Structure formats: C-alpha cells, structure tokens
Predict the 3D structure of the following.
Amino acid sequence: MSKQYDVVIVGAGPAGYVAAIRCAQLGLKTACVDKWVGADDQPALGGTCLNVGCIPSKALLESSSRYEDISHTYADHGITASGVKLDLAKMMARKDKVVSDLTQGIAGLFKANGIKWFQGSGQLQPNQQVKVTAHDGAESVLDAIHVILAPGSSSVEIAAAPLKDDVIVDSSGALEFKEVPKRLGVIGAGVIGLELGSVWRRLGSEVVMLEAQESFLPVADEQIAKEALRQFKRQGLDIRLGARVVSCEAGNKGVAVQYQDSKGEHTETVDKLIVAVGRRPSTNGLAADEAGLLLDEWGFVHVDEHCRTNLPSVYAIGDAVRGPMLAHKGSEEGMMVAEVIAGQKAEMNYDSIPSVIYTHPEIAWAGVTEQALKAAGTEYNVGSFPFAASGRAHAAGDSTGMVKVIADAKTDRVLGVHIIGAHCSELIAQAVIAMEMRASSEDLAMTVFAHPTLSEAIHEAALAVDGRAIHIAPPRKRK
Ligand code: FAD
Ligand code: AMP
C-alpha cells in the first residue's frame, strides 16, 4: 500500500513548522498536525513561541520599555513629556495583533508551500501512522513514510502554588493581566521570570521574585550574572535568592505566599503571582503504547545527534528533546531532520547555540562559561571591554554592561562570548558566526568594525585577550 504522505509532523511550533516548510521545499509531500487553539477559540500555527512565548513577551517588553523610557530617561536627552498615560488594553491589543499577524503568516507559508494542516491532536501509532483527533472529536489516521514529533513543552506546575484564575498564573496568564498589579510575586528568577517580572515592573508593579537557588542565573557566566543581579536590584526588582516557596493561599486580599530561606519561614502578600519555575516536555499521550516510543526519565523523547528516535523513520525535535528549550534550537533541528529525510548530509552544531535574556540590560551568550572551563581544567585567556568605554553606548545614553571574549590558551580559538548590555541580543550573532567558523580571538581582533557601533565592544574585547584594547587603560605595571 502506498503511503499518503512522505512526512507527517506532529506540532507546529518553531520546530515543527520550520521542519514542515523545509520538507516541502525539498519536494516532500508534507502534512502537519497541530492542536493549538488560541484565546479566540481559533486554531493557530506557531506553537508556544508565536502564541504565548517569544513573540508576545517581546512585544510587551518592547512596549513597556518605551513606557519606562518616556517616563524616566527621555528627560536626559532634553525631551520633556507630560501627561504620559498607560493604556494597557491598547498595549495588549497591539501584542495580540503582532501575534495574529505572525501566526497567519505561517498559515500563508503553509498554503504557499502546499503543506496540509490538520487541526487537532496527533498520536503516533506503530508503522509511522499518526492518529488525528480533530477538535470536534472526529478521528482519522495519516500514513507516512517519516514522522517528525515536535510537541514542544508546557509550564511546570508546582503543588506549592496551584494556578488560580487570573490570580496565580503561569507565563501565559502573565501576558494577559487586565490591569497592572500593585504588588506582583514571581516564583523563579530564571529567564522567563526575569522577562515577565521586568515587563510589569516597568509598567508600575512592585515586583518580588522568589528563587529557590542560592545562585543567580547559574546558566550564565558568573561575572555577567553578578552584574545582572546588581542592575536588576538597582531597577527595583526585589530578587530574593535561596527562597523556596512552600505554599500559597489566595484570598480576598491577594495571595499569601509562604517561603523558606536560611533565616526561616516568611509570608509575602502579593496581588498577583506568576509561577515561572521551568518547562517540561509535552509528551504525555504523544505516542500510543504499542508504538514503543522511548522517553527518558523526565519525559523527553530519546534521540541521537540527528534527532532519530528509537523507532525507524521517526524523529523528534524542539523542546521535547534534550538540549536548551529555545525556539531557534528547535528550528535548526527541524531543518536538519528535513534534510536527513531527503537524503542530504546534515548536521547541527549544538556548541554555539546562543542564549538571550531580553531584560534591560539584555544578557546574551554563546559557548562556554569561565566557570565551566575552570571546572574542566581547560586553560584559557579572557578579554573584556565595558560599554562605559564605548562612544556609541554613551551617545545612546545607555552604557551599562560589558563584552567578554574567552579564547583557548593554546589555540586562541573563541570558546565563549558573554555580553550584558543594550541590544546584545543582536550583537551575539557576530560571536556565533565567529564560533561557527572556528575563528580565533585574533580573527576578531583583525576584523574592521564600523565606528561608532556597539559591536566595537566585541572588537575591543577580542583585542583585550592579549592586552591590546585601545579604549581602556592598560593594567598597571608593577614597579
Ligand atoms: P512549541 O512551540 O511548544 O510548539 C509545539 C506545538 O505542538 C504546539 O502548538 C502544541 O499545541 C502542539 N502539540 C503538542 N502536542 C501535540 C499533539 N499531540 N498533537 C498535535 N499538536 C500538538 N525561546 C526563545 O528562543 N527565545 C525567546 O525569547 C523565548 N521566549 C519565551 C517566552 C515565554 C513566555 C515562553 C513560555 C517561552 C519562550 N521561549 C523562548 C521558548 C520557546 O517558546 C520554545 O523553546 C519553543 O516554542 C519550542 O518550540 P517547539 O516547536 O519545540 O514547541
Ligand atoms: P527556568 O528553568 O530558567 O525557567 O527557571 C525556573 C526557576 O524556578 C529555577 O531557577 C528554579 O530554581 C526556580 N524554582 C523552582 N521551584 C521553586 C520554588 N518552589 N520556589 C522558588 N523558586 C523555585
């Protein structure tokens, strides 16, 4: 019996929809099953990223940043604004429009590429079949040569803080508040907690962040994390480390949050509470038992370096498999798998995937941290350069932060670049390209950068690897 489709993809987030488009480009007959239904009850493509993740959070970060700037920093530029008012409903409507424009854009791309979109839930069956349960309950079975599983992830819920209406919310709920909470609690000072906490602080909330770990942002370079904590506290984010939330009680006067730290047990009362304690793979019910799909102990689909599962011709990509839970990581995997299926030689370099935190200042890095190199006993050199010495940063009136380039002591190859400062979500791409091309710090130092740009700080940090940075004083020589 001939198969209906060359490829059936389950999930249309940035992993699944990119895989679908690349498969179609390669001439494969492609279908994509996705169960997402938006707040307007309409099915939408784009998954977490477009609907309740990267895009709406960045829309609100942008709007809230403009509000904060006009209220606080424009005066330094000689611009006085009076009567500034926040229209939260309009801000939210703008965010919703950004989302719907983009999700409709993906629908347009599916159409243009001849990809068949099935709206409903997909479940892997034996022999590369996928059972589709449509939103009205109707069932059908798709028969494919290859299946790509891209079901993504969902917010972790904890017994200490069960979600409650619009009072105790996850990250999705935190993108929908109808008014600015006077006092806002955030459980978890990770990437998502920091971004959402920043949005509401800029819009006027007093924000208390309770983080169970003693160390702040342990995934980032220690020096950068230390500077970030200093900046965030200075802005008024009340970040309490070593504070483990043990229970919450929602009442008429808000939420009483109980937490423990080294000094004992405390209660903090807030109007709204965001639970941002991480995400877990959405693999429950993804495959019928008879299919025999192997998951690991945390529920991630087990895959090899080419995203092959334990089943022939079944692949898995994105947040549902090992590696960082980032949209661009899943998209790259989607492209790689499509090319592998089409018989091409495709690989992915997991060593230089950039991470970005879109706070102010932004934090971005790629490659290894200094603490990881120390732990591994690798010898390295470091060059750093502060934005305080950058002409462009001064002209912009925003010169907090620094760039740090780490290079192998023997080969000079760039092993890691860590940045904290304005617009470093854009700057980090330069480091990723350098690392992808296996550049040395000398290669970066020899490159001509335009003046005046923030990028010059990368050049100067590369020069600083062997003490040649121009715009900072040399280390004092001992007499
Ligand atoms: P998802 O985007 O989760 O998409 C999976 C899709 O599959 C969904 O539509 C889901 O409904 C569907 N699905 C699941 N199971 C089935 C099934 N059985 N049948 C049919 N359909 C199914 N990442 C970044 O890189 N940058 C950021 O700035 C960023 N910001 C974020 C901000 C927030 C608030 C959040 C929550 C996340 C953020 N992320 C960010 C993470 C990013 O959203 C995820 O890494 C990314 O969406 C994962 O892509 P994915 O395709 O694997 O899964
Ligand atoms: P991330 O995984 O980057 O989204 O960060 C989630 C953060 O939430 C982690 O740093 C966890 O330590 C933190 N966390 C998890 N459970 C709790 C809890 N009960 N109280 C406070 N913080 C928590």
The chain has a mean pLDDT of 97.
